[in-house]
Amino acid sequence: MTAFHAAFEAALTGRFDALWPHLVADDRTLGAIAVYRNTAIKGRIDALEANYPTVVQMVGRDWFRAAAREFVEAEPGGDPVLADYGVGFPHWLARFPPVEAMPYLGPMARLDRAWTEAHLSADAPVMAANEAAGLGLALAGAPARLHPSVRLFWFDWTAPSLWLAHRRSGSDEDLVWRPGGEGLLIHRPEHEVRIRRLSRPEWAFLNAARHGRAFASAALAAQSADSSSTASGCDVPVLFGGLLALGVFQSLTEPDVAA
C-alpha cells in the first residue's frame, strides 16, 4: 500500500491530516471524500446487518442500523472481506448504553457471530465411527480434537432457546429470557452450519476436548457433569457415539487444522 492509499484509508475514518500532502484541502476534495466515506460506512453497516440477523429481528432494522453506524464509526476495521466484519460487535453491543434494558442482546450477538465463524471456518476431515473403532483401546489416550468449525456455549440463562426461536422458522422454542442452564453447539462439518442443543455432560465432554484433553479425560468430565440421580449415571459410550455421529471431532489421520 502506498503512502497515499494509507492516507486515503485513514481519511475514510475521519483522520484527514496525512492526506493533505497529496490533495488540496478544499470543498471539492472534502465532498468527494464524504461520498467514499459514506459508501464505506454503508457497506460495513450492511455487513453487520447480514452478520447479526437475530439482533436485527429483536430490535428492528432502523434501531439496528443506527447502532451499527456508531459501531462502524468507533471500529471501522481494515479487512476488505466484509463477510467477516464485526468481530468486536457483540462485546461493543453489550456495553452500548441503550442496551442496558436488553441484557439478552449481547448473548444473541455472540451466537450470531459464532454462526458466521462456523460458516467461514477451515475445512477438515471428521472422525468417522470406523476410525474410532479402529483405534481400539488407544482411543482413550488419543487427543479429542474438535473440528475447527466447532463453537461451544453454556449459559446460565435461556440464551440458546431465545436465539433458536428467532433463527428457526416455526420453532417451538421458548421466547422467555429467564435463568436456566442451557448449552449449544454450532459447527459446520460439511457444507451447512448445524445447530444443536447440548446437555451438561455433552458440553463437558466437548469443553474438555476444546482444552486439549484426551478422550478418556473428556469422558470423565462428562461423568462428573452428570447430575442425574440414576445409579449408572452418564452413559459415556452412548454420549460419545452421538457426538461422533454429529461430526464434531477432527480425524486423527490428518494434521491438526487450527480453528
Describe the structure.
- This protein has 259 residues and is mostly helical.
- The two termini are 29 Å apart.
- The protein has a three-stranded antiparallel beta sheet, with helices on both faces.
- It is built from eleven helices and three strands.
- The model has no long low-confidence stretch (mean pLDDT 85).
- A hairpin with a 6-residue loop joins strand 2 and strand 3.
- The chain folds into two domains: 106 residues, no CATH class; 139 residues, no CATH class.
- The longest helix has 25 residues.
Features:
11 helices, 3-stranded antiparallel beta sheet, 2 domains
Q: Brief overview, please?
A:
This protein has helices at residues 3-11, 27-51, 53-59, 61-74, 89-94, 105-120, 129-135, 159-167, 200-210, 215-225, 236-246, and strands at 151-157, 179-187, 194-198. With 259 residues, the chain is mainly alpha-helical. A three-stranded antiparallel beta sheet has the order 1-2-3, with helices on both faces.
